[in-house]
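The pair is set out directly below:
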Amino acid sequence: MAGGTTLRIAWRNLWRNRRRTGLALAAIGLSVTLVLAYDAILRAYGDWMVETITGPMVGHVQVHTPGWRTDRAMDRTLEDVSRTVDAIRRDPAVADASARVYAPALAALGDEGFGVVVLGLDAGVESRPMRLLSGATVAPAGRRVLVGRALAELIGIRAGDEIAIVGQGADGSLANDLYTVAALLDTSVDLVNREAVVMDLAEAQALFAMPDAAHEIVVHARDARQVPALLGRLAGSPRLAGAETLDWQALAPELVSLVSLVRVAGFVTLVLVFLAAAAGVANTMLMSTFERTHELGMLLALGVSPARIVRLVLAESVALGLVGALAGAVAGLTLVAITHRTGIDYAALTGTGPSAISFAGLRWSMVFYPRLDMADVLAAVAAVLVTAIAASAWPAARAARLEPADALRD
C-alpha cells in the first residue's frame, strides 16, 4: 500500500459519512478560527500595553546619572547631552531619542503659588505619534509653556495667562521667570496632567542653569523585540560609561506582569485548540473504525500488515485535522484582517463606559487593532495536527489488534 494510495483511500474513507466528517471539520475549523481571533486580540492587547507604557513617558530605554531616580536631585545631571543623544540616534535600532529636564518649582498666578514639576523636553521629538505631546495642538517654545489640564483647573489657569515660575538651579542659584501659557495639556500620563508645566528643553536648561545637561535621556526602539540587544549596546557605549541605563521592564516592573499575563492567556487558548481538535478527531476516527471492522478484518486476512492499517488510520486523522485547521486558519486570517483595519472599540461595543481608562498613572485607550504573526497561525495548525495524531492512537491501535476471523464475523 504505497503512500499515495494510502492517502487516496484515507480521503475516500473520510467521506463515507459526509455528515459526521462535515461536523468534525466544522468543529475543528471553528475552534481554530476562534483561537486565531482571540490570539490576535491578545497580541493587540499586549502591543497596546507595551506601547502605552513605553510610548508617551517611559520609553524603551532610559539613561540617568546613578542615584537620580532615588532622590531626584537637581545637580545629578547628564552632561554633553546633545552629542550623546545624537550618538544614540545613530544606532539603527533607535527610532528616536531625546533629553528631558525635571525640576520641582512653584508656579504662581497672582499671589498664590502651587507646587509643580517643570518638564523640559524636545518638542520636535515628543510631538510624534504616541509620544508625550502627540495630542497637543501647540508646542512649547521660548517663553510659551503648556500646563497640565488638571493642574490648570486646580490653579485657575487659562490659555493666554502669564505665570511666574520659581525654583532652584542645578548650581544652587535662584531660577525664576515669567511665562505665557500657550495651551492646556491633556496627555495619557496622569502625572503630567496633574503636576507639569512643560517647556522647551533649551528654555528649561537656561532657566535652571543646566547648559547642555539633562536629567534623563529617553530612547524609543523601532521594534520592542530589539530592546535587549539595544540596551546592551547602550550600556556598553563609552559615551554612557558610568550612567545608569535601564529598559522599560526594569523601570515599570509592576506593569510587566500584565504583559506576561497576556502570554499565559495565549498558551491557555492553544490548549483549548488541542482539546477541541482531540474531541473531533477521536470521535470521528473511533466511529469510523467501528463501522469498518469487517472491512479491516478482510484486509488483515488478505495479508495487509497491522502497521499499514495503523498508517491508514493516521492518514485519515491527519487529513481530517489538516483540512479543518487550514479552513479555520483562512477564516481566522480574514476576520483578523478586517478588524485590524477598522479596530475594535470596546466602549462602542458595550454602548457604555469611558473611551479610556486610567491605571498605574496612565490613560489606556479602549480601541485595539488585532493582528497575527505567521507563528501564531503555524502554531495553531501544528497544534491541531499533533492532536489529531495523538487522538487517533487509540482507534489505530484497536484496528491493528483486530483478529481477522473475529472481525469477519462482525
Notes: The mean pLDDT is 82. The chain is about 55% helix and 20% strand. The first helix runs from residue 3 to 14.
